[in-house]
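REQUEST ID: PR-0412
SUBMITTED BY: lab tech R.K.
PRIORITY: routine
TASK: structure prediction, single protein chain
INPUT:
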Amino acid sequence: MPASLALGKPLTGAVLMRLAAEGMIRGVVDVGPGCGVYSRLFRSLLGDVPWTAIEVWAPYVRQYILNDLYDRIVIGDIRYLDIKKVGEDGVFLFGDVLEHMTIDDAVEVVENASHHARLMVLSVPIGCWPQGEVDGNVFETHVEENLSNQDITDNFPNLCAARTFLDSRGRGVSVFFAAAEEADREKIARFVDEEERAMVDTI
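STATUS: complete
OUTPUT:
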């Protein structure tokens, strides 16, 4: 569906804010924005940095008024785009998008992005999440319907922190953070731990 699950969004936003405060986010590339959830939630929190959307389904641009949410919109399939022309040295957000392709394609996409992005956030549904096309959009189909945390940790590069959030039915979303440089990975892992503890203390 064009809107992603809310699970994991508070932690993602808190960590992104910390990274932005450190000057580590110079731009954002939102892969598969759908209705623009990440921009709606986080854009005002990350300072005056450019936001780019990569959207495979052109009708969503008008349907969800994406031009009001992003500085630049690229219409195309991330599997076939030349990522280095999209932007470098920023954060790539893969919000509930990798399950819409084979895991081999997803690994290639993330690996290609890792050569041009300083940071990456992968939000992946964990467990059995079947889904077909939505309103004629075949790209909404879940090609990988039953991903596990092990599938992600075994295959994707430069991961440094992950948290899994379960819904009331026991299905969940895992949020994985990644970075090209070891120093960034260490900092992100610390931020994730600190923000998670702060949320627990607040509750």
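NOTES: Helices lie at 9-21, 37-42, 59-63, 103-114, 149-155, 182-202.
REVIEWED BY: pending
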